[in-house]
Amino acid sequence: MNAPFDANTVLGRKAPGVPEPEHQVAVIGLGYIGLPTAALLASFGWSVCGVDVSRRVVETVNAGGVHIEERDLDKLVREAIAAQTLVATTVVPTASFYMIAVPTPLGPDSTPDISYVEAAARAIAPKILPGACVIIESTSPVGTTERVGAIIAELRPDLVIPQEGGTQEADIALAYCPERVLPGRIVNELVHNDRVVGGVTPACAERAAVLYTSFVKGDCLYTTARVAETVKLVENSFRDVNIAFANELSMIADVIGVDVWEVIRLANRHPRVNILQPGPGVGGHCIAVDPWFLVAGAPEAARLVRTAREVNDHKAVHTAAKIRALLKAAPDGKVALLGLSFKPDIDDFRESPALEIAEALAHTHGERILVVEPFTEELPGAFDATGAQLVTLDAALRQAEIVVVLVDHTAFRHLSPQDLAGKLVFDTRGMLRR
Fold first, then answer.
1. pTM above 0.85, yes or no
2. Catalytic residues
3. CATH superfamily entry for domain 236-433
């Protein structure tokens, strides 16, 4: 456990007649961001209540366990539960700080769905005490923080809600502070990365920063809520555009018949060129999703961002077509698909192009599909009745005539030319060249 942080010295005096909150912090949503943040805050001495709609998640956390794979998280949760600084529940408590960390998925037409954020706002509204601070961490379209404020104002007409440029003193603080972490390094990066703290008013930003400066070793940078919302979307859109160039280059290389890995290696010897490595597409809840939020805010202006998203989405289709061509070239052979997660060494399959490719092939080639994924014990439900099998790497190499690297997990990196001798090999990650 970290040295306790005495939150009582910075929370300020509560208004006369206002009851003591049940917890100092309530984290709404115990997923890939909410649970690590809740456990980390608890390790710094905050009294934290994690809230989730899933009873299974709540029971797992209260037993000192975790339901997601993330480095150092199990130890952090176990120690916080033992120290009684963290508890999980399905019921929203009163708190000094509310942190909303719920999913913000895309709708079927690639439009943002903030219904979970809105539901969280409605859930906390009846519990909010004067002096509380509400922080949204969920990646959101620009204007979502104001929408949360409007929901609270509607349900709590007794409270004065802060408004940008407003002159009336507010009863609560409202801010947006996006996570900017890498799966597999979440706990470390929550502490060490800079944070952008966007308040509806400057006073709101200062109030929210009380929470973050207690554990963040990076800088806490103050701005407005709308700027902070935009910053998060811009960061991942920038990465998506750069990946799209690499992925499009790989498809061009297929057409003109050159080795894309060699092209990139040599081009990057230029002092002002740094091309990223291509892959089978782009996955995860951030890079594969956030650009669409930016497009939704300015659909006519965001032409490059939209095109990059379309290029990266198409790369999975292109990759699946190349694998089908290999299956056609070996009509009686099986294919080993290495990896399903969206990046190496995690159990997160959200928006994974590897998963999309494997599912598509399973529905057309059934029993010829052998999947190797060390971070799951069973295939997702979409594979049911397809005949595709989840097997070990050794079993896949024994049975398959074709080997496709979709994810460069550490468990695959020892493969040598001798291991793959006599097989058709398609390495979408360039893993075997390293």
1. yes
2. 232, 286
3. NAD(P)-binding Rossmann-like Domain (3.40.50.720)
